[in-house]
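Input for the complex:
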Amino acid sequence: MAEITFVEAIREALTEEMERDANVFCLGEDIGRYGGAFKATDGLLDRFGEARVIDAPISEAAIVGAAAGAAHYGMRPVCEMQFIDFISCAYDMLTNYVATARYRAMLPCPIVVRGPSGGYVRGGPFHSQNPEAAFLHTPGLKIAYPSTAEDAKGMLKAAIRDDDPVLFFEHKYLYRRIKGTMPAGDHVVPLGKARVAREGRDLSIITYAATVWKSLEAAEELERTDGLSVEVIDLRSLLPLDDEAIVATVKKTSRVLVVHEDTVTGGIAGEITARINQQCFEWLDAPVRRVGAHDVPLPYAPPLEDFVLPQTSDIVRASRWLAAY
Amino acid sequence: MAEITFVEAIREALTEEMERDANVFCLGEDIGRYGGAFKATDGLLDRFGEARVIDAPISEAAIVGAAAGAAHYGMRPVCEMQFIDFISCAYDMLTNYVATARYRAMLPCPIVVRGPSGGYVRGGPFHSQNPEAAFLHTPGLKIAYPSTAEDAKGMLKAAIRDDDPVLFFEHKYLYRRIKGTMPAGDHVVPLGKARVAREGRDLSIITYAATVWKSLEAAEELERTDGLSVEVIDLRSLLPLDDEAIVATVKKTSRVLVVHEDTVTGGIAGEITARINQQCFEWLDAPVRRVGAHDVPLPYAPPLEDFVLPQTSDIVRASRWLAAY
Amino acid sequence: MAVSTTSRDAAPPAGLSRVQLIELYRWMRLTRTLEERLVALYRQTKVVGGLFRSLGQEACAVGSAFALERRDVLSPLIRNLGSMLVKGAEPLEILRQYMAKGNSPTRGRELNIHFGDVVDRNFVGQISHLGDMVPVMAGVTLTFKIRGEPRVGLVYVGDGATSTGAFHEGINFAAVQRCPLVVVVENNGYAYSTPTSRQTAADRLVDKAAGYGIPGVRADGNDVLEVYRVTRAAVENARAGRGVTLLELMTYRRKGHAEHDSQSYVPPGEIETWAATNDPVDRYIAQLTGEFGVAPAELAAIDDEIRTTVDSATDEAESAPPCDGPDALRGVYADPAEMPILWYRGDVASAVPDHERPAGWGTHDG
Amino acid sequence: MAVSTTSRDAAPPAGLSRVQLIELYRWMRLTRTLEERLVALYRQTKVVGGLFRSLGQEACAVGSAFALERRDVLSPLIRNLGSMLVKGAEPLEILRQYMAKGNSPTRGRELNIHFGDVVDRNFVGQISHLGDMVPVMAGVTLTFKIRGEPRVGLVYVGDGATSTGAFHEGINFAAVQRCPLVVVVENNGYAYSTPTSRQTAADRLVDKAAGYGIPGVRADGNDVLEVYRVTRAAVENARAGRGVTLLELMTYRRKGHAEHDSQSYVPPGEIETWAATNDPVDRYIAQLTGEFGVAPAELAAIDDEIRTTVDSATDEAESAPPCDGPDALRGVYADPAEMPILWYRGDVASAVPDHERPAGWGTHDG
Ligand SMILES: Cc1ncc(C[n+]2csc(CCOP(=O)(O)OP(=O)(O)O)c2C)c(N)n1
Ligand SMILES: Cc1ncc(C[n+]2csc(CCOP(=O)(O)OP(=O)(O)O)c2C)c(N)n1
Ligand SMILES: [Mg+2]
Ligand SMILES: [Mg+2]
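Predicted:
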């Protein structure tokens, strides 16, 4: 089979799921005739019609709320946030209504809220965000953040079939830069399971999304220059977190670097560090260290964005520190 | 001076700051004639008039947004969320507009957003929340969460005078249960500084808000029953966190329990654990462990709420585990 | 988009049989009697949490819900106990929920009348955050439109909730999509302590309809037949594919926001006047015994019957078991079905060995 | 709250001198010329990020902003380059900002025309999240009301942004508080690719005014004098303490949402028709040279002068230095003034010793 891009993989997943299940429909701004700001839904309108590919007003709270209502009555809505930054406008609806629906009122709420996230694209403070950590302490939600085209497709299909609400983050830096060959047939990748992106013995890098690729670059360089064997874990799902995979790599290397694009303070690395302390403290030969963005809103000028965000060279330097520890 | 309750201390702070600075004004739902759902603003309308004690429509986003606009032009608005649970409706305004104002457009934005938070009061899933962790990865905001009446007054005065936006959480369980004697004169307690609530040698409990009191109870019991000397740190400010105080207690006892009322997953304990790993890993004689709420929306029936939230007995058991480690 | 205001003395609605006219009375009386019982239980501290009354607003709740069929979906708020009863909620469920019993509809997870049933009786469990139910009901009714099902939705908002962004986004979304939805603004004069004049500068909330390109109707919310008539018309519009209607029902909140509220902010005499001159139950009794020639004795018999129902429901509810702590961990997700219990609740001693590192240094001398 | 629609052929606004009439032309021309320059720079990849045009909407921006005094506060959106120029923004600032220069108004933190000045020229730096500026301007103008300052605010929203909850909450709040605020809905027919008909079911966005209890006026947004006249009236209302006015300016977005947008969703001929028959600059030139007897040569001279201004501003902007990485850490808070640089950026080797525990066991054999 031919290689396709990350965003094409998203489109394939949507198309296949809409073909498979008549209850699946898409809802969002400019997703119909225009096909979405990043063309993720391109062609869906012609194929499935206006009833199943709905151009919504600029109303993120209504888009998510309407999806929830439809889900209560058997539909499987997939909402697009034009940029994930605008999910903040649906924060109340997601954390208070959607996340609690099943628990407080036995309401089924199988919705997917997806959209382009992340930086490294000169998007500035409002088109580059990574809001995942803001939803981490909301029981009832699931969070997926794939890094490969294969996972993008397989996990989105899993998310649409999941009986719980799923926030699905798609890193826009990867949309066209990352390609993959889709496995034949009904390719579904289960939520909640991490992936060993690279095997290693000396040091573990636990990460997700765009920084998976930067970590792999760093790992190669460390192998070349320092003869270090670095393992890279791609979490893929952030809620629930794959504790087994985390514990396994810690017990294997005893040195852990947690890397993400979100700010260091309040980012998910804190949660991961705590879980490691809890489950395999004795195996640590060095403190768990974090590499993330500096604690500032993301500026847009290239020299500023490059300075604020974690780069491959940062991961290399931090890894050397851990290895030398 | 006579003792006053936590909520009276809040009212004193508001009154004194409004007397001191004509630019300070209050904005919120039912805060005028009615004096607020918990009477925190009782009497302010008669004293300062309708122009400075404004009953707003049910529009949290507009309340916070309007406060920001007023702050740009020299005012010092204090917004009340009737219950802090409703701050979720202003999440976009706070994280995108308010937090970034100074950085992206050199806009001064000295606002305070305050309100009753927290559980143990049979309030159910929408009148018991602790949303602090959701704002932790938003550079530009400050977060205060006092546990004593003295700090409630002194820190609120500091927050109103602060040139940055401050989220000010007032635990409603403490409103009338906790009393204090206010120091004479202009009592201001600086933001960003933790407090040693109890000195100890064997074990440190790092906590804030209502669980400070439960931790103190636990510490006394542990002293009585196990002869353990437990130190209790009241963080008071969550953003910025007082790293000095955290490091000092870890280096002193080498055993740390982080306790909060928020869910364990995604709560602030993760961030604290990571900072300890980062700054004083070598001093740890045991893993940093967390005590918090179970990962579910907070149910309202007493047996359920009591089961979900951390109790004094939990802190005692967890402390014994750490001491025995 | 004409906005019409209808007057009280309109003819009784077509198609309502004598039996139905009596039913309307039964639902209003049941609502009031049940709430009075809840007040008694509240004073005995058997109610956990706050108690919200709809005294004086029973006609809004009952008359509007009566215009729906069982397959139609209703989204109630705290003042809509009557609507839920009409839609099939049982007094026993209400009492168990208010008393936080283990067999309450939400198994103690939620309070007062925050519960629902989307499988059979079709009413949706509300949340506290005002306005949020409007987008949700836009989605429920969008589903019926997509599937071509002849079903309708009805969502209530208070005068205060019309100020929320969620109300605006939800009703606009439903209007553009021509969803089969009726939006009922129950204007009872107050939002907690805030009079409607501080909620909006508009004289009439129904004037918002034009801005959404939908018809708006304002009606006397204390005239149950009038409420039924205008709601019924809006429901038929929706079912016929003509989209959303905004109804403003004029009524008055005679009790405080909740039982604890002293209503000190209400101008003297205001409550008394409404109670004396414009009580929806009194007005309907007069109409039934007058216009419709129903014998007072027949109504008295209904009152007795209702009291008996509420008495036995109370006894059964009181005898119900409390909630069971560990049940709190169930049902957050479809999968996993149960959340893990936290480590410090177990036998913590046993936790230590798990932490020993087999082939490494240990620090158990610590 | 009557909604009046004014017609194009209204008399030229009272109180506008010949000099001012020429000024209006100058601002519209500067807007268009500057944007054309930005397109050239964009094609040369010297613009960082997207480029947003206001081609065909210059009359809305310029005519409305011209009705404000320097002390009044303006809140622009991405189509309001013209408004910002009128309010005192310099072409040089715009060019530096678009090119992400180190001396741009936001020092590279924000893009395109997202910047402001609340100290002197009084326009507020916008954020991307649509609708949010409306509550903010409600607060700015609430301040003037509280202080009794005779100052006014003006905030723009697009047809699409009227669907946001923030717009609704903000305009309602301002209306209830009778803030001195003018809300201008610039209806250019599209929100990105979405036509206004899918944004609202209302025929006219100005019909929202009644629901907020404020006056609403709809006007021809491509007639700069008309725009000035209706805005000026609303501004005077606000200054006189009569509160909020909603203006709907009818115009058309001739370019895509941003430069990358191919506009494939636009019906064939639509753009061409507007360009040929309803260009605000062409129309005003005809009016000036006709009705007001201005010599074409005088306008041509202005065009040349503007071109020179833009040329030299471009040269100066291009020669400006880029941003300096570490500056990114400054100005998040008033205190601390600078955020710390992260550990892995320093000399990481030195970090190890800091971590040694003096009186304890070490694990550096690891
Ligand atoms: C978003 C939000 N903000 C604030 C509250 C707190 N609150 C609960 S009820 C209420 C008043 C509601 O008034 P109205 O909408 O008129 O309904 P009524 O109580 O009169 O039936 C308020 C402010 C809330 N529940 N949700
Ligand atoms: C809350 C929010 N949702 C989505 C977007 C993405 N977005 C940016 S501009 C735009 C269209 C705006 O249309 P309109 O309000 O009519 O303004 P115009 O571009 O026509 O001037 C959208 C959807 C946004 N900026 N903010
Ligand atoms: Mg009301
Ligand atoms: Mg537009």
